Amino acid sequence: MASFDPVAGVEPVGGIERVSAGSEPIVQIKSKDPEKSGRLFGLGVGPGDPELITVKALRRLRESAVIAYYAGPRKRGNALTSVESWLREDQQRLPLIYPVTGRPPPPPFDYEGTMRAFYDASAERVAAHLRAGRDVAALCEGDPLFYGSFMYLHDRLADRFETEVVPGVCSVVASASVLQTPLVYRDQTLSVMAGTLPEADLERMLAGAQAAAIMKLGSNFEKVRRVIMALGLGDRALYVERATMTNEQIRPLAEVDPAQVPYFSMILVPGEHWQGA
Amino acid sequence: MASFDPVAGVEPVGGIERVSAGSEPIVQIKSKDPEKSGRLFGLGVGPGDPELITVKALRRLRESAVIAYYAGPRKRGNALTSVESWLREDQQRLPLIYPVTGRPPPPPFDYEGTMRAFYDASAERVAAHLRAGRDVAALCEGDPLFYGSFMYLHDRLADRFETEVVPGVCSVVASASVLQTPLVYRDQTLSVMAGTLPEADLERMLAGAQAAAIMKLGSNFEKVRRVIMALGLGDRALYVERATMTNEQIRPLAEVDPAQVPYFSMILVPGEHWQGA
Predict the structure, then answer these.
(1) Which of A104, A117, A129, B246 lies in disulfide reach of A134, CB 3.0 to 4.6 Å?
(2) Which of B169, B191, B209 finishes a domain?
(3) Within its chain, how far is the Cα of A271 from the centroid?
(4) Which of A7, A118, A145, A246 would you mutate first to test chain B, the one with the most B CBs within 10 A?
């Protein structure tokens, strides 16, 4: 175990003097609570590779007494996995365990109400630490405000406590990097959508897109692939699962087994190469 | 001047053992050139705040003998500005100066041909260093493959030299973080578009979007605002310029002076809050 603390040393060396360098945060801090309380950090930890965290998020991570993260029952959660190598033993873990994962049970099960109650309770567990004066880092795969579950904590806590959101590398650009494909040239439009959409909506969205990213595949993969093939986009579409994680897989779209597609998978339809360049 | 090298020390401490930790790159490296040559790194340096670079990009930056970056004539360029505090004096700067910036001259000026020749020449200047065995870090604001000028180097060099793309925090999520607004909930679709689009295209795209980001405003601002107002989106739209840079500005859309809007500005139309949470 090295005694070296990577964050203590993370500071610019040489070059010009910058108001923003060092410990001064540029990212806006919303503070509406006159009470002395801990700070809430919504940290984008990136797509999976521990080194794709930003220097700022890493610094906030190491400053926080409490590390909050979402995970499925009996799972560690991808966000915790990607930062665990940076954590110290004295940092308290606060797991927020989803009551439902995968396809929700049909009514009369109240899915929306169950999730609302879960997010309410999660926010109160985080708030208890903040009120006690402890900084809380809420971990988010990718970026906190881009399909991230941090949004539900933000909606409940940002007006009550000093809150800082540190943006992260989102899965869309991480997927483009591992696929080594330029995603959008010049004034092309990018449409980002969830594979959970109904087939007709997917077809309409994809037909009108110059470049597209389809997230949240999992059990929706077969439907998404059908739409892509019907639109004649099969040759342009690229598939990757768990981009930048240790078990990353890149496969031709035609060879993907729909029964094996994880939630953390993505199809990109890159924009046409700019002919001028 | 501290003698400390932040990248030499950037390594995970404690926690679980990971195949990916340390110096093993997860992000795919494409290697097609049997010759021994330098490596080309396309580095996303993030939206402007020097601390919003990733640990991986910072490590690659410090490993590179040559730092290539685009800039306007007699300008430093935002990409160089955001990393300059991390650079050493022994690292060679390779500025790639745009022949045209702002609105291109009308025909008979051959804008496309001029830009193609510029990107060709830029690629050859980079290639000369790679052939000489020097690693080259090509800097990109935000992410390299998301509207980034690195794409033109990638198109010309990735098949000839060992190339690694390190994704970065893109301006869309950085803007959401400084505006502290959740951008897309659950199944919502996000449309990312350039303000340079014709008014009718902007209107069609925005009318069909659940959430939207409009980039590249500059002289297109007035047109974009007109479309947003006509669609009744004025109350939801948020404006920020130079998000996370030292001169960042957040203003109400109605109060923005169209004559003062920089290229590095953004309008977000966040998705409606999920009612279930």
Answers:
(1) A129
(2) B169
(3) 23
(4) A145
B244: contact with A, CB 8 A cutoff: yes
Q: Residue A211 is part of which domain span?
A: 172-269
Number of structural domains in chain A: 2
Partner B contacted by A244 (CB < 8 A): yes
B121 and B235 belong to one structural domain = no
* B217 touches B189 (CB < 8 A): no
B215 and B260 belong to one structural domain: yes
Tell me, yes or no, if B87 comes closer than 8 A to chain A by beta carbon. Answer: yes
- Of the partner residues B58, B155, B180, the one whose CB lies closest to the CB of residue A277: B155
Across the interface, whether the CB atoms of B50 and A20 are under 8 A apart is answered yes
Residues A165 and A176 occupy one common structural domain: no
Residue A9 lies in a domain: no
Q: Chain A to chain B, count of Cβ pairs less than 8 Å apart?
A: 306
| Cβ pair A141, A245 in contact under 8 A | no
Residue where a domain terminates, one of A139, A169, A199: A169
- Interchain pair B197, A187: CB under 8 A: yes
Note whether B48 and B154 are same-domain residues: yes
For residues B105 and B158, state if they share a domain. yes
CB contact under 8 A, A53 and B54: yes
B145 shares contact with chain A (CB less than 8 Å) = yes
Judgement on whether residues B58 and B155 belong to the same structural domain of the protein? yes
- Residue to test with chain A: of B11, B18, B20, B153, most A Cβ within 10 A: B20
Q: How far is A160 from A31, CA to CA, in rounded Å?
A: 8
ipTM over 0.90: no
Place of tokens 């410990």: A23
Taking the CA of residue A133 and the nearest CA in chain B, the distance in Å comes to: 22
Taking CA–CA distances from B250, the nearest residue in chain A reads A28
CA distance B78 to B245: 9
Residues B149 and B233 in one domain: no
C-alpha span between A140 and A166 (Å, rounded): 10
Q: What is the CATH number of the domain that holds A88?
A: 3.40.1010.10
Contacts of residue B177, defined as CB under 8 A and 6 or more positions apart, other chains included, come to: A27, A143, A144, A145, A165, A166, A167, B243, B244
